[in-house]
Automatic annotation (TrEMBL):
One Pfam family here: Acyl-CoA_dh_N
Listed InterPro entries: Acyl-CoA_Oxase/DH_mid-dom, Acyl-CoA_Oxase/DH_mid-dom_sf, AcylCo_DH-like_C, AcylCo_DH/oxidase_C, AcylCoA_DH/ox_N, AcylCoA_DH/ox_N_sf, AcylCoA_DH/oxidase_NM_dom_sf, Glutaryl-CoA_DH_mitochondrial
UniProt record, GO biological process: fatty acid beta-oxidation using acyl-CoA dehydrogenase; fatty-acyl-CoA biosynthetic process
Lineage, uppermost ranks: Eukaryota, Fungi, Dikarya, Ascomycota, Pezizomycotina
Source organism of this protein record: Oidiodendron maius (strain Zn)
Cofactor(s) recorded in Swiss-Prot or TrEMBL: FAD
SUPFAM superfamilies linked: Acyl-CoA dehydrogenase C-terminal domain-like, Acyl-CoA dehydrogenase NM domain-like
Keyword Metal-binding: no
One GO cellular component term: mitochondrial inner membrane
Name this polypeptide is given: glutaryl-CoA dehydrogenase (ETF)
Subcellular localization(s) per the UniProt record: Mitochondrion matrix
EC annotation from Swiss-Prot or TrEMBL: 1.3.8.6
Family stated for the protein in its record: Belongs to the acyl-CoA dehydrogenase family.
Length: 427
């Protein structure tokens, strides 16, 4: 495939830029030197293709995305050309087979996500919404006409997607959504959709919006593909949400629909209720579980470098002190365990053997551990952590959001508790 040849070419050209070389060997009783960047040797579990994809993704992210992120975060700016660049490398909708997508393994897709979030969670959010939520939803539930018409351009990053489920009054309780779809009173073959969605990544720039609404004819939740170019003035508005304290390098907004006409053919034909949106969310949650490990690993790398360079008390580097070493050891352990858990679930996902609760478990655990460890590592920087040039504060702010969206950790605790006990405790 073109994608695989591009991967090989890109890997040869860019892999050397993926991460600066450092000496990682330390005294050990084992014959194999300990690699602090991959403590449990997870790379041994990857195929050659997965390693090539990882190296290409990391090279692109470090060489092309990292130089932009600090100013983008300061300005609350998202360059939508990033998605086009990802499309050129075959990184969008990577697990989808056909339609110009790469059709790679779920582990390979996770490695892409991890590489992106190593730079910034906001950049990963923009990619995840495009790939897992918008493209993934259309690929799994859309008509063949929608797939053929939209997915190839979305894979190139030429058409941008958004996913509208959360509402102003209903976050963790999507079953109570107020957005409705009903037969259009004057346009035959069309539906009229009204309602509002909020905290929607990519909505201000999206060309294709996958919106979930209650269908008046059945009272059931259905999925609808809304194409901005076909919406009459005043029926669709997507204002940006400004002045965020996290995910400032991604674009977040609302979706306001006022009797927006949508062709009946754009309604997903065979899925009703929350099964549809939750299936999409599970794919995105799986990606988040990978991504936050990338953010945590970047925190570890930056903290280690700072602790070795910064000297306090008799000219000693901070890394000499026991409390600092414990912080690094805890974080490296959780990052290694979290990565192995994500690999395991990815392999099961490829084999069609995952339960939704598995994804809840790794999403909850990895997000919680990434956030708690990042907060502790931030302490090593002292007052310097306040400066955005050190990046650790940006990661901490972002990781709080990742713990919250697509199922806050307490919600995933209840999902797991229900599976363990057989008793539902949501209400």
């Amino acid at each position: 495939m073109m994608y695989r040849s591009l991967i090989r070419t890109s890997t040869r050209q860019l892999a050397s830029a993926a991460r600066p070389g450092t000496v990682r060997s330390y005294a050990s009783t084992a014959s194999q030197p300990f690699d602090w960047e991959d403590p449990l040797g997870s790379h041994n579990l990857f195929t050659e293709e997965e390693i090539a994809i990882r190296d290409t993704a990391e090279a692109y992210c470090q060489e092309r995305m990292l130089p932009r992120v600090l100013q983008a975060y300061r300005d609350e700016y998202y360059d939508k050309k990033i998605l086009e660049e990802m499309g050129e490398l075959g990184l969008l909708g990577a697990t989808i087979k056909g339609y110009g997508c790469a059709g790679v393994s779920n582990v390979a897709s996770g490695l892409i996500t991890k590489a992106v979030e190593r730079v910034d969670s906001g950049y990963r959010s923009g990619m995840s919404v495009q790939s897992s939520l918008a493209m993934g939803g259309i690929e799994e539930f859309g008509t063949q006409e929608l797939k053929d018409r939209l997915l190839p351009e979305m894979a190139k990053g030429k058409l941008l997607g958004a996913f509208g489920l959360t509402e102003p009054n209903h976050g963790s309780d999507p079953g109570s959504m107020e957005t409705t779809a009903k037969p259009h009173p004057t346009k035959k073959g069309y539906l009229s959709i009204s309602g509002s969605k909020t905290w929607i990544t990519n909505s201000p720039i999206a060309d294709v919006l996958l919106v979930w609404a209650k269908y008046s004819e059945t009272g059931k939740i259905r999925g609808f593909v809304i194409e901005r170019k076909d919406c009459p003035p005043g029926t669709l508005e997507t204002p940006a949400i400004k002045n965020k304290t996290g995910l400032r390098a991604s674009l977040t907004g609302m979706i306001h629909l006022d009797a927006c006409p949508v062709p009946e053919a754009n309604m997903f034909p065979d899925v009703e209720g929350l099964r549809g949106p939750f299936a999409c969310l599970n794919s995105a949650r799986y990606g988040i579980a990978w991504g936050v490990m990338g953010a945590l690993e970047d925190c570890i790398t930056r903290t280690r470098a700072y602790a070795l360079e910064r000297k306090q008390f008799k000219g000693n580097p901070l890394a000499k002190y026991q409390l600092v070493q414990k912080k690094l050891a805890d974080a490296a352990t959780d990052a290694a365990f979290g990565t192995l858990a994500a690999i395991q679930v990815g392999r099961l996902k490829d084999d069609g053997k995952t339960a939704p609760e598995m994804i809840s478990m790794i999403k909850r655990q990895n997000c919680d551990k990434a956030l708690s460890n990042a907060r502790v590592l931030q302490e090593v920087f002292g007052g310097n952590a306040v400066s955005d040039e050190y990046s650790i504060g940006r990661h901490v702010a972002n990781l709080f959001v990742t713990q919250t969206y697509e199922g806050q950790s307490d919600i995933h605790s209840l999902i797991l508790g229900r599976a363990i006990t057989g008793i539902q405790a949501f209400v």
